[in-house]
């Protein structure tokens, strides 16, 4: 067989299994085989990966589009940022008031016409009308994951222009997701307690990340996790996905719930900023996010959970925000910041080089686990014959300083600005095509394809 592309002489990272020096044959965008170095093989294109590590492309399952700009433009620019960091597919959370049946086709077209990497979509549920359509979204649209914001109440839901989410709505959402075979994704914070705490913190004239943390302590996340998990189990959900876990209290609550012997599987995701940043970061108010950046003890608790398989996924929670949206003090600054382009490099630097986190474990956290959980495996996130030929070819010795201009997100800053990082992708392949090489984007907008997902696959 003559291959379209052959990746030779690299160290191939198999998620959860190990590393082997071998060659990879690619045919029609798929992995066609793994071969011993030195085998006589023919290919139209040969990529020499000597001294490099060939990892499955990162699957960033926690991103956002359309928060501050146009959805189509976000698909274009943020997919470029992802490709620069070794991300080969991503799932943005879509949020709108209208029924998704009104414009699903247009949303898919926006992505397919603009993204340079493959994509799926999560739908954020904000109304009874959307809840009633969940089965349609799963069966007809290939959307199998649905987010709900436990914080969407009172002044917070009014700020976003959304209907409030009380526990009755939450339970009904869980029931519908369970019936459809979908996956519930939950933002867990007790916003009513947060309001009470925030009033007191503001009265004392406090500001900055420390004040933001004091108004949203870890127990407000932990309590919401308990309520969400228990209600989801009662509604018949087989699993629940806790997005952006940020606190040691949240981890402790997961352990307590597991000891209760509940039937539901509790899946937890964290993000690089909860592993690497604390309230003393030089980024200051730029690092405002919900849940908040916390303390070093929370960083260490989360790292321990990553090492011990208590956290299954690391996603970026990438959102584009202009630097101007962070002005006016912590109480006025908008939450969220970009992170897709730095997801994998930060884990290579801090995880692999500094904490001895194996590359095959990193690949589980950012590739195979998210692909399995969100019904994309083995098409995505897999190092197996027949999987899409999505790779991040990494130079573990390459050192670069993070700058927002190099990351190329629409945001004009990075909370990691100036941080020196060791370990960067030098090539990113999506379905066998090199879309990024040595910091240069080689693909035009529109190469990315929509991933239609089926529950249970």
Overall description:
This protein is an alpha/beta fold and 457 residues long. The chain has two domains: 2-54 and 387-441, Urease, subunit C, domain 1, CATH 2.30.40; 57-373, Metal-dependent hydrolases (TIM Barrel). 35% of the residues lie in helices and 24% in strands. It contains 15 helices and 18 strands. The strands form two sheets. Strands 1, 2, 3, 4, 5, 15, 16, 17 and 18 form a nine-stranded mixed β-sheet that branches. Strands 6, 7, 8, 9, 10, 11, 12, 13 and 14 form a nine-stranded parallel β-sheet that branches. Strand 1 and strand 2 (18-27) form a beta hairpin. The radius of gyration is 21 Å and the shape is globular.
What would you say about this model in short?
The chain is an alpha/beta fold. Helices cover 35% and strands 24% of the residues. Helix 1 crosses helix 2, helix 7 (191-203) crosses helix 8 and helix 9 packs parallel to helix 10 (248-259).
Task: Tell me, briefly, the overall form.
Answer: globular
Low-confidence stretches are none
**How is the main sheet built?**
9 strands, mixed
Number of strands: 18
Task: Work out the helix count.
Answer: 15
CATH class of the largest domain: Alpha Beta
Q: Under the CATH scheme, which architecture of the largest domain would be assigned?
A: Alpha-Beta Barrel
């Amino acid at each position: 067989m003559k291959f379209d592309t052959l990746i030779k002489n690299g160290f191939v990272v198999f998620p959860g299994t190990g590393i082997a020096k071998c060659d990879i044959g690619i045919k029609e965008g798929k992995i066609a085989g793994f071969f011993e170095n030195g085998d006589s093989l023919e290919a139209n294109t040969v990529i020499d990966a000597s001294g490099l590590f060939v990892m499955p492309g990162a699957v960033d399952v926690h991103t956002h589009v359309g928060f501050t700009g146009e959805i189509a433009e976000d698909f274009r620019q943020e997919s470029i940022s992802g490709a620069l960091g070794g991300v080969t597919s991503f799932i943005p959370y879509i949020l709108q008031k209208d029924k998704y049946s009104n414009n699903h086709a247009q949303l898919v077209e926006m992505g397919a016409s603009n993204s340079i990497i493959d994509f799926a979509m999560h739908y954020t549920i904000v109304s009874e009308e959307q809840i009633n359509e969940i089965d349609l979204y799963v069966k007809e649209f290939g959307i199998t994951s649905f987010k709900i914001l436990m914080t969407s109440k009172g002044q917070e839901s009014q700020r976003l222009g959304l209907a409030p989410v009380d526990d009755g709505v939450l339970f009904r959402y869980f029931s519908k997701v369970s019936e459809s075979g979908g996956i519930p994704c939950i933002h867990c914070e007790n916003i009513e307690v947060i309001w009470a705490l925030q009033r007191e913190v503001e009265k004392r004239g406090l500001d900055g990340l420390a004040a933001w943390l004091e108004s949203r302590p870890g127990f407000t996340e932990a309590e919401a996790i308990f309520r969400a998990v228990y209600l989801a189990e009662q509604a018949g959900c087989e699993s629940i996905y806790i997005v952006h876990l940020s606190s040691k209290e949240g981890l402790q609550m997961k352990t307590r719930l597991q000891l209760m012997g509940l039937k539901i599987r509790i899946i937890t995701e964290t993000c690089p900023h909860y592993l690497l940043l604390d309230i003393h970061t030089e980024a200051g108010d730029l690092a405002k996010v919900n849940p908040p950046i916390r303390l070093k003890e929370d960083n260490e608790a989360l790292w321990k959970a990553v090492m011990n398989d208590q956290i299954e996924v690391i996603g970026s929670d990438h959102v584009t925000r202009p630097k101007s949206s962070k002005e006016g003090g912590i109480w006025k600054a908008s939450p969220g910041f970009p992170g897709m382009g730095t997801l994998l490099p930060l884990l290579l630097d801090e995880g692999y080089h500094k904490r001895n986190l194996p590359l095959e474990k990193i690949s589980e956290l950012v590739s195979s686990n998210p692909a399995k959980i969100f019904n994309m495996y083995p098409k995505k996130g897999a190092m197996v014959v027949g999987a899409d030929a999505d790779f991040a070819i990494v130079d573990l010795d390459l050192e670069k300083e993070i700058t927002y201009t190099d990351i190329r997100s629409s945001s004009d800053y990075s909370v990691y600005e100036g941080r020196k990082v060791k370990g960067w992708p030098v090539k990113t392949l999506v379905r066998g095509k090199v879309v990024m090489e040595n910091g240069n984007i080689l693909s035009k907008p529109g190469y990315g394809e929509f991933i239609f997902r089926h529950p249970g696959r």
